[in-house]
Every structure is written in structure tokens, then in C-alpha cells.
Amino acid sequence: MTATNPTTQPSVSTVERSISAVFKDREQIENVIHRLLDRGIPRDDISVIGKNFHSETRIAGFITKKDVILGGLRSGGIFGSLFGSALGLLTGVGVLFIPFVGSVVAAGPIGAALLGAASGALAGAAGAGLVSALVALGMPEDKAAVYQTRIEAGDFLVVVEVPANQSGEIQLLLESAGGEEVHTSETTLPRKRAGKLETPGDLSPEVRSHLSEDAQRTFIANYNKALEESGDESKAEHHAWDVVSEQFEQDEHGFWSKAKAKL
């Protein structure tokens, strides 16, 4: 057996890629989500964006993991009851308003990534839209423009993050399920760093974009402390949000910046 060189580059199977495709109807979305889950793709790695879910929508804003934590809510029950579909199997389901597109339902990590795109402002400046947000996340501008046009027309965008050695298999799955405009990107959606957090750049974009610099430092310090004590990232995240909510005030835009007066 050949000895493993510790300096050797990671194998191709550890390199993540994003595969995106457009689907024309909700039945196709239902089918492809179940097929991806059956193939072993984690629900945290599947995202969907579309406009034509609104008849079943009962929320006014984006529900993130933070909202679930601070509200003491059980995400599965909420999302399942809201959408009554395979979207309820994914993480972070909610509604985003995007200039030039309108209100869309975003399910999966792409919603939080879009909220964090362009320094925390999804289309916050005049003239910005889904194209600029997708480009900020690493998608080619020409493909982003196609996706915005298709979503405006009522189609749905699916984005799946997979190891590189599964990209061909998943691309074929999306195509066989009716996917069009299939594109494979070498980049993936920004996520929270696993394990101990060193800098604000290690935070997920949705967390980072809604915390001031002081609140970011508070989150990181308390997350790391709780992680060291429990070894559980979920518990550490809950603890960090609890401390932020105790020490800072949230404004009407969901931004935590003003420190609460100490009694």
C-alpha cells in the first residue's frame, strides 16, 4: 500500500461544486427534490427559488435558522404546514422581494446566501436585482441573466451542491427530471465555517449581514465558548443567538447593532 503524503491535495471527491437548472412546473420540483434526497444529497445542500408557490404561502418575510432559534419554533412543522410540499423538507424556507422579479419563495441555503449577498443587501441599491446577487455568489453573469428571466416568467431554479465526483451523475439526474439551462459552477454557496470561528468571515452570510461588528464579535466569542463546552454546533449557535438577543436591539430591518442599556 502506498503511504499517504499529508501534503497531498484533497481528492476530487472532497471538492464541492454547484449544479443549477431551471424547471417549468411544481410537479417537476417535487419530483427532483425527492430524487435528490433518495440519491443521498443532504437537504441542506438543495435550494429552490420560484414565484408560483404563493397560493400556499402564509408568511411575510424570510424565515431563517436564526428566526427559528430566537422564536423557539420547530422549522419542520412550520415549513411543512406553510408549503405542504417537498419544499417543507428543505431548510430556511421564506419569501424574498427582489427588484425586477418581485416576491419569490426561496428554500434551502440560497435564501440565506442571497440575504447576505452584496454586503448584506439583496438588491438594496437601485438597479440591483437577482442577476447581481447571483453574480456576487459566483455565477457567470450571462447564466444569472437567463435564470432571472426564467424566474420572472414563472419558472423555478434549483441549485444543488455536490462533491465533484458526483457532479456528472447529478447533472444527468436534473436533466432527466426535466431540468433546462443546466450549469455547473466550481464555486458553492457561502456557508458558516465548521468548528471554531476565527473571524467574521467564518460566519454564514445571513448571520454576518445582520450583525454589527460588535454583535459579530459577541456572537463568535459566545459560539466558540459554547462549542468548547458542549461540542455541539447547533447548541453553540442557539447560545450565541441568545446572547446577541440579550445584549443588542434589533431594528426594523432585522439588523442587530445597538447595544442594550445595562441595568
Topology:
Elements: E1 16-23, H1 26-38, E2 46-50, H2 65-71, H3 75-83, E3 94-98, E4 102-107, H4 109-120, H5 130-136, H6 141-152, E5 156-163, H7 167-176, E6 180-185, H8 205-208, H9 213-230, H10 233-247, E7 248-250, E8 256-259
Antiparallel strand pairs: 1-5, 1-6, 2-4, 2-5, 3-4, 7-8
Helix pairs in contact: 5-6, 9-10
Question: Describe it for me?
Answer:
The relative contact order is 0.16. This protein has 10 helices and 8 strands. The termini are far apart. Helix 5 packs antiparallel against helix 6 and helix 9 (213-230) packs antiparallel against helix 10 (233-247). With 263 residues, it is α+β, with helices and mostly antiparallel strands. Strand 7 and strand 8 (256-259) form a beta hairpin. It has a 6-stranded antiparallel sheet, with helices on both faces. A two-stranded antiparallel sheet has the order 7-8. It folds into 2 domains: 16-185, no CATH class; 200-259, Rna Polymerase Sigma Factor, Chain: A, CATH 1.10.1740. Residues 1-13, 55-63, 71-83 and 118-127 have low confidence and may be disordered.
